Amino acid sequence: MSDPPRPLLRVQELLREQRYRRSFLHDDRRQHARILAILGAAMTAVLVNDIRLLRDSAWLHVALLIRLAILVSSAVSALRLLKVERPAQHDRIVGTWLVLITASNLFAAMTRYPAGEYLGPLFGMAALCSVYYFAMRGRIAPRMAAGVLSSLAAVVLLFSPRAVITPVAKLTSSLAMLTLNLTGLFAARSFEEQRRKRWEAERHERLLRQQLALKVRELAAEKERAESLARVRTTFLAKMSHEFRTPMNAVIGLSDVVLSSPPQTPREEETWRYVHTMRDSARALLTLLNDILDLTKIDAQKLTLSTAPFDLRRLLSSIFELLQPVAKEQSVDFSLDRGPGVPEWVSGDEARLRQVLVNLLSNALKFTDKGSVRLKVAGQRAEAHEPPAYTVHFCVEDTGRGMSADVIARLFRPFEQADEETRVRYGGTGLGLAISRQIVQAMGGDIVVESQPGRGSSFAFTLQLPTASTPAPALRDAPPGHTRLLALLVVDDDPINRFVAETLLKRLGHRADFATTGEDAVAAVLRGAYDAVFMDMQMPGMSGIDATRQIKRQLAGKRQPYIVAMTASAYEEDRSACLAAGMDDFISKPVDVATLAAQLARIADERSRSSRA
User: Fold this and answer.
1) What angle do CA 474, 479, 483 make, to 5 degrees?
2) Is the model more confident about 258 or about 289?
3) How far apart are CA 47 and CA 475, in angstroms?
4) Radius of gyration over every alpha carbon of the chain, rounded to an integer in angstroms
């Protein structure tokens, strides 16, 4: 970038000078007004000395006129200074006063020349020079001119033929006046430079503060825009998730019903394969949707953990049983190595821990064509830890293709995969590991990877899991085989969801009544004694949460149904809101047959225990 033209630079300098002068104008004019008033008053005292020395001289009248002129000009200039608004006016008034007082003092000094009197004028001129240099502010040139002329007048008096003074004293006094002028000039320049530097620093600080304030406002606006976009994105994804889960609930739920009956004929076997493919594809789409929702929560720093007691050993066994058919299909040796120190009941987020382990094991099985995949879990009681806890180490080892160091370095980035061949051959979005690491970090650990190409990989992490007391039997999973029929009410405004729920419940041997609004649900519960109510959250009119509050309030102190949220809303905030409203459990759509069967078994077991109590 080229420098600005010289005229523009000159204009900028003038403007900066004006800003500098204006910033000190108020202080300078008050300072100078006081100085002028004091010097004018001092002239009154000098009049007494003039009358004494010039009593019989013709110079007396001249001296009196000069002193009177100084007094009047000082008073008028002081009053004018108090009213000035611009630096140029101030400079003109001060410059005019300096000219008048210097000329007046020169004439007054000359009235002493015939008498040879020098001592009074010498001290007077020295005092004036001190005022010019050390007390006055602003432009230095007029003050220096006034000081030099006053000093010359004093020196002239020193060398008067009638002055009674030795040559050495003359020389010493002259050098003293010269030194006073040089010292005063240096002090005046130093003061002005320091004041200007201080003003420049303060001005620079103000500019920086203004820029900082502007930047803060811009950042605040950007933050607000980003938060607004994040809210819009979250709302959009929540809405889309809800809308996606409703048709997937029908696809997965009805597919499970069809696949629960083994095929009897070749025609049925072919249809069975089609339905199986449909269900697997729907589950893959559901997994992708869940990953996107989790990634959105992580980006918005809203990933929350739901801490509750759970059976760690049972969790490990269920994960092993879930993935064993996959390993068998791929002819991979799959094993669970659970150490004796692994605790049973601990406190934590069971669903999130399951999500991490299933993701790591699924990846290990995916990338292991032959050999073995092993889940190793070891635990020991943490020393000096309050509350009491176990240190549990999880490690997933495989003998698959392995990874190089550069692949490991970008392994946990969202949407990253090892290479293009991996993406084409194995598919996937590259979100699972990124989400798993964020979950583990939220739990207080981190995933450590060790791998070599062609020699397999290991993914390990360590968690501190507080111990939990064994819960009451009613809160555990009920044993399979419960056949007691339950009085059920399904509340959902969507006819497809009602049809899926009716089909699944009928398959499990239960019949249910149905309501389409929150108001109808409240009325139905108050009319009949239901064992359980499966409640949707979002319905026209009264929502499922409001309906639950109404039921809890109106049946306070009476037998109440077991209310389970069965909704397409999948966020943790939705689960927390349902539980806070008084619901007893939460099932997210699409509804899994096994999950629904386990839920019904728990409800039946609890009702049986309640009836016996």
Assistant:
1) 100
2) 258
3) 110
4) 48
Res 247: pLDDT: 77
Report the chain's mean pLDDT, rounded to a whole number.
82
Block residue for tokens 């509804």: 591
**DSSP 3-state of 474:** helix
CA distances from 189 to 32, 141, 172, 197, 431 (A): 18, 10, 26, 12, 70
14-42 b/e (C-beta count within 10 Å ≥ 16 → b)? eeeeeebbeebbeebbebbbebbbebbeb
Contact 526, 558 (CB under 8 A): no
pLDDT in tens, 187-226: 999 998 999 899 889 888 999 999 999 999 999 999 888 8
In sequence order, the β-bridge partners of residue 4 are: none
Do 494 and 525 meet the contact criterion of CB atoms below 8 Å apart?
no
Roughly how many angstroms between the first and final C-alpha of the chain, as a whole number? 89
594: which 2 tokens? Answer: 């096994």
**One-letter identity of residue 497:** N
3-class secondary-structure state, position 346: strand
Q: Which residues lie closer than 8 Å to 606 by C-beta, 6 or more apart?
A: 474, 478, 562
Distance CA 533, CA 412 (A): 42
Concatenating the DSSP letter of every residue in 138-163 gives S-HHHHHHHHHHHHHHHHHHHT-TT-
Q: How far is CA 435 from CA 348, 411, 575, in A?
A: 17, 11, 20
CA distance 410 to 1: 41
Phi, psi of 13 (to 5 degrees): -65, -45
372: three-class secondary structure by DSSP: strand
Residue the block writes with tokens 């499966």? 534
Q: How far is CA 334 from the centre of its chain?
A: 45
- Counting beta carbons within 10 angstroms of the beta carbon of residue 568, is it exposed (0 to 12), middle (13 to 18) or buried (19 or more)? buried
The secondary structure of residue 384, as a DSSP letter, is T
pLDDT score for 187? 92
- Per-residue confidence at 523, pLDDT binned at 50, 70, 90? very high
Round to whole Å and give the CA distance between 248 and 243: 9
For 570-596, letters b (16+ CB in 10 Å) and e give bbbebbebbeebebbbbbbbbbbbeeb
State the pLDDT at residue 301. Answer: 61
Q: Which amino acid is at 571?
A: Y
Q: List pLDDT tens digits, range 409-420.
A: 888 777 666 555
Rounded to whole angstroms, how far apart are CA atoms 439 and 98?
81
Confidence category of residue 273, pLDDT binned at 50, 70, 90: confident
Residue 132 to residue 153: CA distance in whole angstroms: 16
- 565 close to 589: Cβ distance less than 8 angstroms: no
The pLDDT score that the predictor gives to residue 478 is 43
Report pLDDT digits (tens) over 309-318. Answer: 888 998 899 8
Alpha carbon distance 494, 55 (integer Å): 121
Q: Are 73 and 115 in contact (CB under 8 A)?
A: no
| pLDDT classification of 25: cutoffs 50, 70, 90 | confident
The gap from C-alpha 270 to its chain's centroid, in whole angstroms, comes to 57
Q: Give the pLDDT confidence score for residue 116 in this predicted structure.
A: 67
pTM of the model: 0.53
